[in-house]
Every structure is written in structure tokens, then in C-alpha cells.
Amino acid sequence: MNSRRLFERLKQGHVRNVAFRDFVVVVERFGFRKVRQEGSHQAFSRTDVAELLNLQPVRGEVKSYQIRQFLRLVEKYNLQLENPP
Fold first, then answer.
1. Orientation angle between helical segments 20-29 and 3-11, nearest 10 degrees
2. Residue 42 to residue 44: CA distance in whole angstroms
């Protein structure tokens, strides 16, 4: 799915049934990089964001509360979606 379109859906509150892989692409397009993985838990960070973003897939989907945490970070730090490479 297109990252920009998925992000717009997430902002509108559609946080259920989101494929984990698609969400990770959105997170990375916001400049986060995977810094650690322990089992199924993956931690993402960004140099100008104090908090870590922890994600864990459940049956191939991202947890709704983790999407909401990500959206709060985007708003708190006024992050912008980067252009694809």
C-alpha cells in the first residue's frame, strides 16, 4: 500500500487490520530506523525523538495502541513523511 495513503487512513482513526510490513514502511518513511530486535519485538528510533517506538506483530498485523503511540510521536515532534528514495 502507498505509505502516504496509509498514513492518511491512520490519522483518520483506521488503526485496525493494518499489515505490520506496511506500517513499518510508514515508520521508516518518517525517519525511524530499527535499532534492536528481541524476538518479535522491534525497536525503532530517530535521533531527534527521545522515545523509542516498540512494535510487535500479531498475526501479521500491528497492534492498534502502537499505531496510536506512533501518531502521538509524529504530532509531538512535528515529523514529516520523507520522500521515497
1. 100
2. 7
Task: Convert the pLDDT of each residue in 12-58 to its tens digit.
Answer: 999 999 999 999 999 999 999 999 999 999 999 999 999 999 999 99
Report the SS3 class of residue 51.
strand
Distance CA 65, CA 42 (A): 15
pTM comes to 0.93
What is the distance in angstroms between the CA of the first residue and the CA of the last residue of the chain? Answer: 16
Whether residue 53 contacts residue 69, with contact meaning beta carbons closer than 8 Å, is answered with yes
Q: 56 in a domain, yes or no?
A: yes
Per-residue pLDDT at 83 = 76
| Assigned domain for 81 exists | no
Contact 66, 55 (CB under 8 A): yes
Question: Residue 35 sits in which domain range?
Answer: 3-76
Residue 46 domain flag: yes
